[in-house]
Write a structure and sequence with these properties.
By secondary structure, this protein is mainly α. It has one domain: Four Helix Bundle (Hemerythrin (Met), subunit A), CATH 1.20.120. Helix content is about 65%, strand content about 0%. The chain is built from seven helices and no strands. α1 crosses α2 and α4 runs antiparallel to α5. The radius of gyration is 19 Å and the shape is elongated. About 25% of the residues are buried.
Length: about 220
């Protein structure tokens, strides 16, 4: 039975453009990080939760890059059709998927581009002259990168019509809160009232509609 969906070449184009932009923005970021003074204050992560987030993050790239290649070859569903789910709403699901995916991709790119040298990989810790970032995506939520992983994974799952991508998404969901909580404990130690005030004004994973009157 023929599945009605967005043509593969169209999906490939809409997935490849943000991929090119993301790679272009990531190269300067990693170049900065490689050359920066590394005397970090280590964050004492709970490794099992950080590992779950890493699985989610690492799952993004082979799926994203591999699907673009196979979609351009018009061969994705010939190879992975057995993994896809079908219904009468495939096109609607894919359109919703692209919407979610692009929000995640834009969040990821803006976070990397706007925060400069003070955004460092989780395991690298905080450098001595680290500054508290409160601009760009950090004005909306406190952990935009983690949220972007979730949005990209959910978006890809809906775009490609593959349920199994929700497995690494669940891993990120399980790992995201304890990992973010550990980071925030370190940031409170380093910045004190400045970070507590920031925490009061800005939501952890969702934008705050109202400011909290007191810190919990």
């Amino acid at each position: 039975m023929m599945i009605k969906m967005i043509p593969q070449i169209i999906s490939a184009i809409f997935l490849s453009v943000p991929l090119i932009i993301l790679i272009s923005s990531s190269i300067p970021y990693w170049a900065r990080f490689k050359n920066m003074d590394k005397s970090p204050k280590k964050i004492q992560y709970k490794k099992k939760f950080l590992f779950l987030i890493a699985i989610g993050w690492l799952s993004i790239w082979p799926v994203w890059i591999g699907s673009v290649i196979l979609l351009f070859l018009n061969n994705f569903y010939n190879i992975f059709g057995f993994l896809t789910f079908s219904s009468q709403f495939e096109v609607i699901q894919q359109i919703i998927g692209f919407f979610i995916f692009y929000i995640g991709d834009i969040t990821y790119n803006l976070t990397i581009i706007l925060t400069g040298q003070y955004l460092s990989p989780s395991t690298s810790g905080l450098v001595e002259d680290h500054k508290l970032i409160q601009k760009g995506t950090f004005r909306i939520i406190r952990h935009p990168l983690y949220v972007s992983y979730l949005l990209i994974l959910v978006g890809l799952s809906l775009i490609l019509l593959i349920y199994w991508l929700l497995i690494p998404t669940i891993f990120v969901i399980i790992g995201i809160y304890p990992t973010a909580k550990t980071e925030e404990e370190t940031l409170i130690q380093q910045y004190g009232e400045e970070y507590i005030e920031y925490k009061r004004k800005v939501g952890m994973f969702f934008p705050k509609l109202r400011k909290s009157k007191s810190y919990r």
